[in-house]
Amino acid sequence: MLHLLYILAFTILAVIAVANLIRNLIMFSFDRDRTYPTMNDRGQYGYPTSRKQFTPHPELLDSAGNLIKEPLLVMRSINVEDARQQLDALYESSPGRKVENQEES
User: Fold this and answer.
1) What DSSP designation does 58 have?
2) What's 1's DSSP letter?
3) Is the dihedral of CA 73, 79, 85, 88 positive or negative?
4) Longest C-alpha distance within the chain, in Å?
5) Are residues 60 and 68 in contact, defined by beta-carbon separation less than 8 angstroms?
6) Against a cut of 0.85, is the pTM above it?
7) d(Cα 19, Cα 14) in Å, to the nearest integer?
8) pLDDT tens digits, the chain, 105 residues: what are they?
9) Which helix (H) or strand (E) covers residue 5, if one does?
10) b/e for 70-93, b at 16 or more Cβ within 10 A?
11) Engineering a disulfide at 37: which of 23, 45, 54, 80 sits with its beta carbon 3.0 to 4.6 angstroms away?
């Protein structure tokens, strides 16, 4: 009997948690479109008259200042042994590794 009471209690808590999650997601999507008042130079609150122009992050621009349209992350498939060899080479060439080798000698 006590097991059924626990199952019922946790089921109710789970339903409340999922309902709260869905409600928060919906409210967040409505909040995103809302314009909030900003403080102007005179210390008074007011609504912005114009939106700032979108300024992209410098890493998204090429040397001429144009937006990059290629993917920024290119992954290639390699096997496990090649990856292990590359990681071992990086580890062996790291400055901390040289200090450990000198301490062991």
Assistant:
1) G
2) -
3) positive
4) 73
5) yes
6) no
7) 9
8) 889 999 999 999 999 999 999 999 998 888 777 666 665 555 555 555 555 567 788 888 888 888 888 777 766 788 899 989 999 998 988 887 665 556 665
9) helix 2-32
10) eeeeeeeeeeeeeeeeeeeeeeee
11) 45
Number of Cα atoms under 13 Å in the Cβ half of residue 84: 3
Q: What would the two tokens of residue 6 be? A: 């626990």
Say what angle helices 95-104 and 80-93 make with each other, to 10 degrees.
Answer: 70
Assigned token pair, 56: 């992209």
Report the distance separating Cα 34 and Cα 85, nearest Å.
52
Taking the alpha carbons of 3, 8, 13, 15 in that order, is the dihedral positive or negative? positive
**Residue 46 main-chain phi, psi, to 5 deg:** -160, 165
